[in-house]
Design brief:
The protein is α/β, with parallel strands linked by helices. It folds into two domains: 2-112, Rossmann fold; 121-276 and 311-325, 2-Layer Sandwich (Dihydrodipicolinate Reductase, domain 2). 35% of the residues lie in helices and 29% in strands. The protein contains nine helices and 15 strands. The protein has helices at 11-22, 36-46, 54-59, 73-82, 97-109, 124-129, 156-171, 280-294, 302-325; strands spanning 2-7, 26-32, 50-51, 63-66, 86-90, 114-117, 138-144, 176-184, 193-200, 205-211, 218-225, 228-233, 238-246, 256-259, 265-271. The chain has a nine-stranded mixed β-sheet. Strand 11 (218-225) and strand 12 (228-233) form a beta hairpin. Helix 4 (73-82) runs parallel beside helix 5 (97-109), helix 5 runs antiparallel to helix 9 and helix 7 packs across helix 9. The chain is globular and about 75 Å long. The N and C termini lie far apart (57 Å).
Amino acid sequence: MLKVGVLGAGHLGKIHLRLLNQSEKYDLIGFYDADIINGKKVETEFGYTYFENINDLIDAVDIVDIVTPTLSHFDCAKKAMEKGKHIFIEKPITNTLEEAENLLVLEDKFKVKGQVGHVERFNPAFTAVKDAIKQPMFIETHRLAEFNPRGTDVPVVLDLMIHDIDAILSVVKSKVIGINASGVSVLSQSPDIANARLEFENGCVANLTASRISLKNMRKTRFFQKDAYIAVDFLEKKVEVVKMKDAPEVPGDFDMVLQNAEGVKKQIYFENPTIAENNAILDELESFAEAINTDTTPVVTLKQGTEALKVALQIINAFENKSVLN
């Protein structure tokens, strides 16, 4: 079992602690939190060992799980990597692109592995259809959330939209060549609603919308590609797959057949992939242990986390520049 320690015992940190404690792939050594009062409280309430010194915890483990506020991600990761420790780091990978790129250098220098907590990659609805998503040419995402003061210290792009950015980059194997975006601050100092249009070198276009002041929660993405439409509901963990194939010479009574202006006939049919129940956070943590044990590439690499952050920051820069011009 790999020895693991958690940095940060906030809302998500406590979830990580619970899951790591129950995992058969990890030996949870303890945790560190900069707030001593909170650290002692969590130790008393749940029984996890609290380390008052961050370096003592890092020295005692093989893997450091970083679930601290984004502003401290880089410093925490740097401390761990310089001591030869593998790191699991929550999204976004760091606060700035420069910090993320520095982590890539440290990863190579100290020969350690890193994984970024883009948990939607492990959503069972997404994993059920990911292999069926081939060369999508238009993608539309809506990630809407009810207002929650927690997390409003960062733009909604880094808080919510980055999940969809990462998922899209994982299936569109092409370079982003154009970004048009708008962001609006309603309740927070930073934008609460954002829309972005990404244009890829291969012609694919992705339209992303994110809001954290909606009346209901929604996390849906639709992929359009040649002869297929794939919808993923990340929240309800459901998928809809609609495909087309050449129509039979003699259609059945219940076959759905369409004919275009050139007379070409296509049959519409539906697929229902099996969606397995899972705990996506536990799966991502255990997949990292598997990558270390087998010396393979993590599912969400630090480089991929850096690319998602790069696009997110370009989106923020796009609507900030627009507001200046107006």
